Amino acid sequence: MRAEKKKWGLVYCPKTGALRPHKFWKKIEQCLKDNDIEYDHVQSESRDSVERLVKMFVNNGYTNIVIVGGDTALNDAVNCMMQIDNEQRENIRLGVIPNGTMNDFSRFWNISEDDYATTIASLKKERTRKIDLGCVRYKNSNDEACHRYFLNCMNIGLVARTMDLRRKTRHYMFGSRTLSFVLSLILLIFQRMDYAMHLKINTETIKRKVMTICIGNARGYGQTPSAVPYNGMLDVSVVYQPAILQLFDGIIMFIRGRLLNHRSVHPYRTSKVTIEDIHQAPVSIDGQMIKTPKGAFTVTVEPEVINFLIP
What we know:
With 311 residues, this protein is α+β, with helices and mostly antiparallel strands. The chain has helices at 21-34, 50-59, 71-81, 86-89, 104-108, 116-124, 158-172, 177-188, 244-255; strands at residues 8-12, 39-43, 64-69, 93-98, 128-139, 145-150, 153-157, 195-201, 204-210, 212-216, 234-239, 265-270, 272-277, 283-285, 288-290, 294-309. It has nine helices and 16 strands. Strands 1, 2, 3, 4, 5, 6, 8, 9, 13 and 16 form a ten-stranded mixed beta sheet that branches. Helix 2 packs across helix 3 and helix 7 packs across helix 8 (177-188). It is elongated.
C-alpha cells in the first residue's frame, strides 16, 4: 500500500492486562473520524512487532506516524526510525496517543491518557519539535557491538528491577496501576538493594556500591525531573543506599517530585557517561529490560534527531 502524505499511519498497541482493549480503540477511531483525519492502522501482536510495523509505514511513504501505546512502544518506534537515513527521517513526524503502563514521556509534554480527544486535536495541527535521544553502545554476551536508543531514560540497579516487577505484577492485577505498585513494593523486600559499580561522569570517577542509576533524556520516571529532551544533554541521578529511615524519606520525596533534594541522590548533567562495570546489575531502557551488557559501555546523547508532534 502506498500512502498519501497527509494520511496518518497508526500503530495500535493494546495495553498489557487490559480487560477490554478494543473498547479504547473504538473511542480513538470515532475521535479520528470526528476530526476528519485520514488514517490507516495496524495492531501490534507483541512487543517485538512495533519496529516491523513502523518500518512498513515508513517504506510506504507515511510522513505522520502515531503510536497508540506507551513508553516501550515509543522506544521501539524511534529505534526503527534511527535505522533509516537522515534525509528520509527528516520528512517523518512521530506522535503518540498514550496507552501504556507508565506513559512517562507523554506526561512530559502534558499529553494525558484520559484526554485522547484533546491529544488527537493537537496532533492534527502538526506542531513539531526536534528532540534528542539517548544512545547506549555496548557489547552483548557474544561480543557483538550493539546499540539502543531511548527517549525517556536508562535505569541500572534497583529501579530497573522495580520497573520489571511492576510490569509483571500489573499483568496479574488486571491492569491496575495502584495494585501493581503496592505488590511491587512488597516484592522489593526480597530484592538485592545495592550493586558494586564503576563509572565516569564528566571528570568524576565513581567506584562504590550504588543502589540505582538513572540516565535521563527526559524525566526518567521522576528520577531526573530537570531533564529535557532538547538541550543536547543527559541528566544522571546516582543513588547510594540510604539507611532505612532515609529510604522511606526518599520515597516520599520521589512521590512529591523532590527526589533530587534527598541526601543519598547525587545529580549530574553531562553529554556522556562511561560505565566500566555494573557487576550484573539489571538494566532497563524506557521501562523495558535488556540483557546486562558485557564489559564496559557508554551512554551518549544524539541531539535533535526525531521530529516529534507536540501539543
